[in-house]
């Protein structure tokens, strides 16, 4: 069969002849390849741990359940995401800010890449030799090898260089286009990286000033509650760092793919700014059930947590409106006729739509989790794990798969063939079905009390624990689907990297056009100092007194302990 | 802003405020707050040398009212079994001797994080008789999934 490119047959062929510069290609592909490597190891760990927990397999004595879980969490939640996001951002910046990254951004980008890679390799090696079985949250006073924390610090600080690379390209564009508002993609990438810089301050302080000196033995004791609080200063914003790039794709790239327009130039920007404000001063919703923080401050942060409902609703509205307008422009009739006009057979669209559908119940679960009192019924149960396999491992990850399938060919100058497109759709279906089995069931069994982060156990055959076991079987079936899904994804990645037919045509990099009716965004939206100032102010309000209290009511502190 | 979007936002905002108001009322007027004690202990590795954790156990402090002083460690709890009559109100005071642990009793609101150096306090009334499982739900090391205990609520004879 002749392998024809999908795009040639679409109505929405991009007339622009955009091609990546070779220097940018190398930088972006380095990030994406690293991400997919992490995906492979991470999902192998995911499969094995799920089967162990269901009692289907026994692990060989050299491999521990918690060792796998540490690798799974670190490689997927921290490594796959960060590398993919940075690579995707560079690609969009090159595309929308004059066709290439500036030389300084490339240098910063490579510094970031090497720092992060070295950090990840150190940390992963230590996990593999069982010197860092502390899970991806590395709570003190459990002590990993000090070099694990050094690896973590390199990952974080390296990602700052990636952020500086984003800022550098953006600032150059601003200088050359005085008085204009920046392209939407660039605006969103900058906003996400500002969020990231602010959030990672917490974990950087924890790692550099608490964990590293303590694990090397330069200080004896650590303030455990302080370290947890610093971690969660970062930890919740981390989830928005994962989610916002998916939103970028939904807001900026997908309108082009569905043949529609971006219908507002201001609301999407406002959405991202609200995330900068409300995703950091909220970490206490992960610490609701612990001592050392008073109820007043916990409740205040619950209120701030819920504020993200606003930008989320804005997003749902904008995306659906874009789809509907696109469908109607193609002549759809009736209330829902536009749905049929959407490009369902296009993997670039299908994967992220699967992602969006899963995001609806996922968001509802998140509201339950953040509800001050309801949290007590589900905190640290598998409900939580079910929740972030829907948000992160489905919504975000499926969107990333939807990006990879066109981004890689457009970088490698190969064709996205019909077969690969079809495989991409099969992949998304497998992933969606697998996740319904896995995370849907995790929600249920979590409500029945099954704890997260636990190896196979029957708790002395207590009836409550025995009732969980059949659900574990369903979860394990889901894991098998997902693992096959991730192998297919890797096959797609490798095929588009090395095998798919080369083409001389530039491969489309979809960037939506603004609707003619979209107004020029108000200047204030791009006055970053205002938003950074507000973000810092909110964090100061939400955290100053609790931090003082953590010092005032500090116990003597904890010595390092190794318990695995 | 388009009209439909305005309606959508007003609807979203109003339900958000209603929702937060309900949570706030439950917290402020019904006393439904998570554990938030500021009490601390001596250095965790010496916690068994000073009250109250030098004598963990179950203490009756009134009719159908008990105080449970609980110490957690890798990989167990002291006391590991708590026996009380039906209808008892139990005031828990718990901590950890080493790393972070948890106490979670499925089917109740008992969901506590135990941080070394800090005392977690929580009160729960047990109205239904039965054998309740409690377990550790914060990863604490190789034996984490083995860490458990029982609360036995004996049916009242009257
Ligand atoms: C083959 C696909 C996957 C399977 C079978 C799988 C399975 C699991 C299971 C069973 C757990 C819970 C283990 C426990 O609580 O004891 C878990 C935890 C986790 N998974 Fe996955 N997962 C998969 C993919 C992903 C992906 C793609 C991501 C993120 C990008 C992800 C992120 C996480 C995180 C962050 C945790 C929490 C680790 C922790 O609690 O320390 N997973 N996974
Ligand atoms: Cu959170
Ligand atoms: Cu534990």
In terms of topology, how is this protein built?
The complex is a heterodimer of chains A (564) and B (158).
Chain A: H1 22-53, H2 65-96, H3 103-128, H4 146-176, H5 184-215, H6 224-257, E1 261-262, H7 267-278, H8 295-306, H9 309-329, H10 337-340, H11 347-370, H12 375-378, H13 382-412, H14 418-447, H15 463-466, H16 469-499, E2 513-514, H17 528-552
Parallel strand pairs in A: 1-2
Chain B: H1 3-29, E1 57-62, E2 65-73, E3 76-78, E4 81-85, E5 88-96, E6 101-104, E7 111-114, E8 120-126, E9 130-135, E10 148-154
Parallel strand pairs in B: 2-5, 4-10
Antiparallel strand pairs in B: 1-2, 2-3, 5-8, 6-7, 9-10
Residues 236, 239, 285-286 of chain A line the site of one copper (II) ion (CU).
**Which stretches of chain A of 5+ consecutive residues score pLDDT under 50?**
1-15
Helix content of chain B: 10-25%
What is the chain-wise order of helices and strands of chain A? HHHHHHEHHHHHHHHHHEH
The CATH class assignment of the largest domain in chain A is Mainly Alpha
What profile does the largest beta sheet of chain A have?
A: 2 strands, parallel
- CATH architecture classification of the largest domain in chain B: Sandwich
Report Rg of chain B: 20 Å
Count helical runs of chain B: 1
């Amino acid at each position: 069969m002749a392998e024809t490119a999908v795009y040639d047959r679409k109505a929405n062929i991009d007339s622009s002849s955009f091609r990546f510069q070779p220097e940018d290609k190398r930088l972006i592909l380095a990030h994406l390849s690293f991400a997919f490597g992490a995906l492979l190891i991470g999902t192998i760990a995911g499969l094995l741990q799920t089967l162990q927990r269901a009692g289907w397999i026994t692990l060989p004595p050299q491999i521990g359940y918690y060792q796998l879980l540490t690798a799974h969490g670190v490689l997927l939640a921290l490594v796959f995401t960060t590398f993919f996001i940075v690579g995707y951002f560079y690609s969009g910046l090159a595309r929308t800010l004059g066709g290439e990254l500036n030389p300084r951004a490339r240098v910063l980008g490579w510094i970031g890449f090497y720092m992060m890679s070295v950090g990840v390799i150190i940390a992963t090696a230590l996990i593999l030799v069982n010197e860092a079985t502390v899970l991806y949250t590395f709570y003190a006073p459990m002590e990993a090898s000090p070099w694990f924390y050094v690896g973590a610090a390199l990952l974080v600080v390296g990602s700052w260089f990636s952020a500086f690379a984003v800022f550098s390209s953006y600032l150059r564009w601003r200088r050359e286009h005085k008085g204009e508002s920046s392209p939407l993609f660039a605006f969103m990438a900058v906003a996400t990286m500002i969020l990231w810089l602010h959030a990672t301050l917490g974990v950087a302080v924890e790692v550099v000033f608490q964990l590293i000196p303590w694990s090397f033995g330069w200080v004896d004791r650590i303030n455990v509650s302080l370290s947890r609080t610093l971690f969660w200063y970062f930890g919740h914003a981390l989830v928005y760092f994962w989610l916002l790039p998916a939103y970028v794709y939904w807001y900026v790239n997908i309108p082009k793919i569905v043949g529609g327009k971006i219908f507002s130039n201001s609301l999407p920007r406002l959405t991202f700014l609200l995330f900068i404000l409300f995703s950091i001063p909220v970490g206490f919703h992960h610490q609701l059930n612990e001592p050392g923080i008073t109820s007043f401050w916990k409740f205040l942060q619950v209120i701030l947590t819920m504020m993200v409902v606003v930008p989320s609703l804005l997003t749902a509205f904008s995306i659906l409106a874009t789809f509907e307008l696109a469908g109607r422009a193609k002549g759809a009739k009736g209330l829902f006729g536009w749905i049929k006009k959407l490009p369902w057979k296009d993997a670039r669209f299908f994967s992220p739509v699967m992602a969006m559908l899963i995001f609806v119940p996922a968001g509802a679960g998140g509201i339950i989790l953040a509800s001050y009192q309801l949290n007590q019924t589900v905190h640290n149960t598998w409900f939580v794990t079910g929740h972030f396999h829907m948000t992160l491992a489905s919504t975000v990850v499926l969107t990333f798969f939807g990006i990879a399938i066109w981004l890689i060919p457009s970088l490698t100058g190969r064709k996205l063939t019909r077969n690969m497109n079809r495989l991409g759709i099969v992949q998304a279906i497998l992933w969606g079905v697998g996740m319904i089995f896995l995370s849907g069931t995790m929600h249920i069994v979590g409500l029945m009390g099954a704890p997260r982060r636990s190896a196979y156990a029957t708790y002395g055959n207590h009836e409550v624990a025995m009732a969980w076991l059949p659900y574990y079987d369903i979860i394990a079936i889901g894991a098998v689907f997902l693992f096959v899904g991730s192998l297919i994804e890797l096959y797609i990645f490798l095929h588009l990297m090395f095998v798919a037919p080369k083409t001389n045509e530039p491969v489309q990099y979809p960037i939506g056009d603004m609707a003619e009716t979209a107004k020029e965004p108000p200047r204030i939206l791009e006055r970053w100092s205002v938003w950074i100032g507000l973000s810092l102010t909110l964090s100061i309000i939400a955290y100053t007194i609790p931090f003082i209290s953590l010092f005032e009511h500090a116990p003597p502190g904890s010595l390092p302990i190794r318990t695995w | 802003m388009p009209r439909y979007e305005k309606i959508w936002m007003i609807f979203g905002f109003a339900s958000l405020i209603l929702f937060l108001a309900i949570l706030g009322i439950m917290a402020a007027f019904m006393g439904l707050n998570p554990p938030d004690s500021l009490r601390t202990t001596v250095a965790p590795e010496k916690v068994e040398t000073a009250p109250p954790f030098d004598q963990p156990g179950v203490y009756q402090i009134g009719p159908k009212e008990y105080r449970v002083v609980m110490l957690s460690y890798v990989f167990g709890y002291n006391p590991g079994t708590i026996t009380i009559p039906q209808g008892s109100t139990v005031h828990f005071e718990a901590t950890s001797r080493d790393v972070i642990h948890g106490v979670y009793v499925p089917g109740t609101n008992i969901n506590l994080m135990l941080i070394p150096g800090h005392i977690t306090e929580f009160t729960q009334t047990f109205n239904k008789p039965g054998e309740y499982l409690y377990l550790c739900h914060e990863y604490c090391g190789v034996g984490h999934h083995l860490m458990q205990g029982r609360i036995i609520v004996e049916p009242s004879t009257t």
